[in-house]
Amino acid sequence: MEKNCLFCQIANGEKPTEILFENDTLVVFKDIHPAAPVHLLIVPKRHIRSINDLTESDRPILSELMMVARDMAGRQGLAESGYRLFVNVERGGGQVIFHLHLHLIGGWQK
Known about the structure:
Blueprint: H1 6-11, E1 19-22, E2 26-30, E3 38-44, H2 59-75, E4 83-86, E5 102-106
Antiparallel strand pairs: 1-2, 2-3, 3-5, 4-5
């Protein structure tokens, strides 16, 4: 855990938020600045600064991110209508919080 990392603090229960899903590896919660009617963040509990900091040993975390994203899209009623998954990498790529996280967005009206 990084002491001043907001997502580490959320994952460790030090900052309050509504956790929609949690397991040994990840937490899922709503983005406080949503870009869509549904905007969830899927966050590893272990601090990984960005995609650029991944190692070979992080492969299971990446798989877990995708599988939980799929499951959360289903729970949010987005599986049929569609959704978007994305990761911002570094400041130039739009990353604001330097803790790896996957955005799940969707829910727009047709």
